[in-house]
Design brief:
The complex is a heterodimer of chains A (326) and B (645). Chain A is α/β, with parallel strands linked by helices and 326 residues long. Chain A contains 9 helices and 10 strands. In chain A, the strands form 2 sheets. Chain A has an 8-stranded parallel sheet. A two-stranded antiparallel sheet of chain A has the order 2-3. In chain A, strand 7 (183-187), helix 5 and strand 8 form a beta-alpha-beta unit. In chain A, helix 3 runs parallel beside helix 4. Chain A is globular and about 60 Å long. The model of chain A has no long low-confidence stretch (mean pLDDT 94). Chain B has helices at residues 46-51, 86-101, 117-128, 154-160, 181-185, 197-216, 248-259, 281-303, 318-331, 381-386, 421-438, 452-464, 495-501, 520-528, 536-555, 587-597, 620-643; strands spanning 26-31, 60-61, 66-67, 73-78, 106-111, 132-136, 170-174, 193-196, 220-226, 263-270, 351-352, 361-366, 394-395, 400-401, 408-413, 442-447, 467-472, 505-515, 532-535, 560-565, 603-609. In chain B, the strands form 4 sheets. Chain B has a 9-stranded parallel sheet, with helices on both faces. An 8-stranded parallel sheet of chain B has the order 4-1-5-10-9-6-7-8, sandwiched between helices. Chain B has a two-stranded antiparallel sheet with strand order 2-3. The mean pLDDT of chain B is 94. The chains are: A alpha/beta (326), B alpha/beta (645). Chains A and B meet through helix 1 and strand 4 of A and helix 2, helix 10 and strand 15 of B.
């Protein structure tokens, strides 16, 4: 089977056929492909509005017909091949089971030299993802788009140690992150004694660019900083949809105003990551139950797609977006 | 006891916040736990949504004929939980309930998903011994495989742990997720009684009340009410709705009558998910049930038959036993998800395949809506319907394993060119012909708008000759729409005039059912070709049994095509359609009619058309569509495995 988006039947509506990401073939293979898109229908560790278990469905269903990147002038599937790998098995309320499956799946995909594109799911899944990367290729840096730092906000009880506000603290404690090459960007939500001034992240060597700073310095300047910090490190890009302003992404469990547009997000991705050593991607916290006109699912679909264009650029030898005075 | 209206926040019906339990008859508490739900989560928001519902006082209950204030109650706020963590939460729930029970009060718990009833029952058993269960739900919740603790297992676990007086327990309203004969039979050998939804709808409230009272007698009991007992039209805001249930009237009547007579030791109301509700319907329904429940406590108090708990545990070893069961269950290697999912949605979770040679039923989608006269959007129906399950392993109405010796496949969607309706008809005919050339399976098409049926009938005729015809709809679809040359044009109002013209339909063996709109001459046209018509008006008068009989007589043993327009169903039950007409039928009535009319007929093909998800509320229309398709599959399997043997 050709690992490219399947052609739509002639003249038939875009919603024709069984729904997969970008109409990619649904196939559990890792041979001769560059990326595998995999859903994680998981929302057991959401602190406020649950429903991200339906995120993968909604993102697969979202209208997204782009095959050509205007930004880079390439046709994606001239350069890359991939599959929809289906969903990771998840069972609500069985965290250990879910975490083990997520870790195993990421490890399986990454070990095969294939880029995992994980579609969440709540952000707690980033911890087992990072464990999976560590198993497969060792510690990685993170580039983390979010409105929250997710490095813990209060002491967690022993019998309930995780929630979707703790994954990066958990991963740092488990020594999964190359913190000195890691950046968190867009933070503006929920602070507490523990999370004040993003002290946990900063004390452990990560760079935090809060929303107020990003608004102040602008996308290009931020991208320059990011590129410098991540250097040549292998980078896991983790994108919480609530990085976007609720105007652009209402369908999420813990939205925070004062965020960014979809265009800003795409530009920031492109400027920051073109030519860099990214090794995996996730897109989390899309919650279709609170969406309006599918726009959050659409945004999630398009951001994951943008990541694929960056991968296509790597394969095509394109290493620059625009000359922005780096 | 004096009421305090200045708690600073809403308590349930302005009840005093954390009053002295020794002075109270009942205590309200919320459990916002939804981490063990298999469908849509969100019941964590139910306690506060229900506290905020409608009237802030109860006053005189006209139905129970009692001042509700005669029973003293208090709102204890929400029981602390650990979201995402089932067992730690269970222990917190049991412990909170035990605190209540030491004061002899009746706990009234607002869930939460249904998993929380298990830890409640542990506390109840500790104080009162095994209790009779009175369980309103669309699911039995007695699953015996897969994960041990979730919202599909509370009563298999409770039975195993000895928390229930099975011989006096009863479940009512059951209709969803019967995955095996074992599930169907669970507990019956120990005397547990089950009234399935289809039986309940025939029995009516009074006979149900009789049956419950007879089963429970004077035993101490626990009433648990899952809001999905109600039909999705009455309670869309829930995670796992199942069509074919009752409206609130029946539920509240039963609660009032049994509540005033039974020795109720505790009550819970679970599975309300306010954020996926529509117009506050579900919260309102839940509130009404709670209000009536509380009135029955007042009534029993007034009558002097309310028994206060002693506050002394009858079975103090319950907690130790719980620990034993938990240890054994968690070590069980089978403690894995009950249902796998690849993340890709096919009709009823069936295999997606173009290999149909040995199939018994072939399902295909037709995402086409360009022949619609009013609101378009049925192109999204195949995808929306694929999101629902419903075709379970065991048929409760026909009582057989319907997936055994029965292979059904999802053939995917037809290519349906949307620029030109004539092209579409040709393409539909071509693609269905391909299927019919390769298999003798029953075909089930999922529209799309009703014009598609014309394309399907042309292919059917090539194989089987002019088709006998059963047509459920609110419209005749035999309009005359003429082009400039005076020929009838195809659109979603004309397919059957066209099919009669071209000989695809054997109108002398045709019958149209449920019609309630259109012009007189449309009916005349059909009837002049021998078609029988049972309008909605007549169906309401003669009833479902008689209608089913007439349908069977009309088609005889001819090869039949069954076409079902979702707007046959009333817009209260199926709002998501392009041309809804009120005065229709409930999903329970619809499914019953299909069940009585269709088994044993020589059915070659079905279709289900006109679901328009964009006009839907709470997905109830696509859910009703899925239930109808599931019924088609049941009948196809019944015809193969039972009727023809």
């Amino acid at each position: 089977m050709e690992h490219k988006p399947l052609a739509r039947p002639p003249k038939s509506p875009a919603c024709t056929g069984i729904s997969t990401f970008m109409r990619l073939p649904l196939e559990k293979t890792l041979e001769d492909i560059d990326f595998a898109v995999c859903g994680v229908p998981f929302d057991s560790l959401v602190t406020f509005r649950p429903g991200t278990r339906f995120g993968p469905d909604a993102i697969r269903d979202a209208y997204g017909a782009n095959l050509y990147s205007d930004a880079f002038g390439i046709t994606l599937f001239d350069h890359i091949k991939g599959v929809d790998y289906g969903d990771v098995a998840c069972q609500a309320g069985y965290i250990d089971y879910d975490f083990a499956n997520i870790r195993h799946t990421v490890k399986e995909i990454a070990s095969a030299g294939v880029i995992p594109i994980m579609i969440g799911g709540d952000h707690a899944m980033a911890y087992p993802e990072l464990q999976g990367y560590k198993d497969a290729i060792g510690k990685v840096a993170i580039l983390h788009f979010d409105s929250h730092s997710d490095t813990g906000y209060h002491e967690m009880p022993k019998d309930a140690p995780y929630n979707h506000g703790t994954p990066f603290k958990d991963a740092i404690e488990d020594d999964c992150i190359i913190t000195e090459h890691s950046v968190q960007i867009g933070m503006r939500g929920l602070t507490s004694e523990l999370a004040k001034d993003y002290s946990y992240a900063r004390e452990h060597g990560m760079t935090v660019i809060p929303a107020c700073e990003l608004h102040e310095i602008g996308i290009k300047a931020a991208a320059k900083r990011i590129r410098k910090i991540i250097g040549d490190a292998p980078v896991f890009v983790t994108f919480d949809i609530d990085f976007l302003d609720p105007v652009y992404a209402p369908g999420t469990g813990t939205p925070e105003g004062g965020g960014f547009s979809t265009w800003q997000a795409l530009e920031l991705l492109r400027y920051s990551l073109i030519g860099k050593n990214f090794i995996g991607f996730d897109l989390v916290e899309v919650n279709p139950q609170y969406d309006s006109g599918d726009k959050t699912a659409q945004a999630g679909n398009r951001i994951a797609w943008e990541f694929l264009t960056l991968l296509a650029c790597r394969k095509a030898g394109i290493t620059k977006y625009e000359d922005f005075g780096e | 006891m004096e009421k305090k209206f200045d708690a600073g926040f809403n308590t349930y019906k302005s009840l005093p916040y954390k009053a002295n339990l020794d002075e109270c008859d009942y205590v309200i508490a919320g459990v916002g736990f939804d981490s063990a739900t298999s469908g849509a989560p969100g019941t964590r928001f139910a306690p506060n949504a229900i506290r905020n519902a409608y009237w802030k006082n109860m006053g005189y209950n006209q139905n129970v004929k009692v001042w509700s204030d005669y029973a003293y109650g208090t709102d204890y706020g929400d029981i602390e939980i650990k979201s995402g963590y089932i067992l730690p939460t269970f222990h917190m729930i049991t412990s909170a309930l035990k605190d209540f029970l030491t004061h002899g009060v009746i706990p009234i718990i607002i869930g939460g998903d249904h998993s929380i009833t298990l830890p409640e029952l542990r506390a109840i058993k500790e104080f009162y011994g095994p209790v009779a269960l009175v369980h309103f739900d669309s699911h039995r919740d007695v699953r015996c495989f897969g994960t041990k603790y979730d919202h599909g297992t509370p009563f298999s676990r409770a039975a195993e742990e000895g928390l229930l007086d099975m011989a006096h327990s009863i479940q009512i309203g059951m209709r969803g997720g019967f995955h095996s004969k074992e599930y169907y039979d669970f507990g019956k050998d120990q005397g547990m009684k089950v009234i399935h939804a289809y039986e309940m709808m025939d029995m009516g409230a009074d006979k149900c009340i009789e049956a419950i009272l007879e089963q429970v007698q004077d035993k101490p009991c626990f009433i648990t009410f899952d809001i999905d007992f109600l039909d999705p039209a009455a309670a869309p805001g829930t995670g796992t709705p199942v069509p074919g249930g009752p409206e609130t009237t029946l539920a509240r009547k039963i609660i009032r009558e049994i509540g005033t007579r039974l020795d109720v030791k505790g009550f819970d109301l679970v599975e309300v998910a306010p954020d996926i509700d529509s117009g506050g319907l579900t919260v309102q329904a839940a509130d009404g049930i709670l209000v009536d429940m509380i009135a029955t406590i007042a009534k029993r108090k007034e009558l002097g038959i309310l028994k206060r708990g002693s506050g002394i545990p009858l079975c103090p070893d319950t907690e130790a036993k719980t620990a034993e069961f938990e240890a054994a269950n968690l070590a069980d290697p089978e403690n894995k998800p009950a249902f796998g999912s690849a993340g890709i949605h096919t009709f009823m979770g069936l295999l997606e395949s173009k290999d149909i040679k040995d199939a018994d039923a072939v399902l295909y989608g037709m995402p086409y809506d360009c022949a619609t006269s009013n609101r378009p959007g049925t192109r999204f129906a195949p995808r929306a319907i694929r999101k629902h399950w419903g075709f379970s392993n065991y048929s409760i109405e026909f009582q057989f394993n319907q997936k055994e010796n029965f292979k059904a496949v999802d053939y995917g969607d037809f290519a349906v060119p949307y620029q030109n309706c004539h092209d579409t008809m040709i393409k539909v005919t071509d693609q269905l012909r391909d299927i019919l050339n390769n298999t003798d399976a029953v075909t089930i098409g999922v529209g799309g708008d009703h014009a598609l049926t014309f394309g399907e009938l042309r292919a059917m005729k090539e194989k089987y000759g002019p088709m006998a015809f059963i047509h459920f709809d609110s419209h005749t679809d035999t309009w005359e729409t003429l082009d400039e040359d005076g020929n009838c044009e195809i659109n979603h109002g004309t397919p059957f005039r066209m099919a009669i013209y071209n000989g695809s339909l054997d109108a002398t063996h045709g019958i149209q059912v449920g019609l309630r709109s259109g012009a007189e001459h449309d009916h005349d046209f059909a009837m002049s070709h021998g078609m029988k018509i049972i309008k909605a008006h007549e169906l309401h008068k003669i009833g479902i049994e008689e209608t089913a009989k007439r349908i069977r007589e009309a088609v005889g043993d001819k090869p039949v095509f069954v076409t079902f327009d979702i707007d046959f169903v009333d817009p209260a039950y199926a709002p998501g359609t392009g041309t809804p007409i009120i005065g229709g039928f409930s999903t329970a009535e619809t499914l019953k009619l299909l069940r009585l009319a269709l088994p044993g007929l020589n059915i070659k093909g079905f279709d289900l058309v006109e679901v328009a998800p964009q006009y839907d509320t709470g997905n109830i229309t696509s859910l009703a569509g899925a239930a109808i398709i599931s019924e088609f599959l049941t009948i196809a399997s019944y015809n193969k495995n039972i009727a023809n043997k």
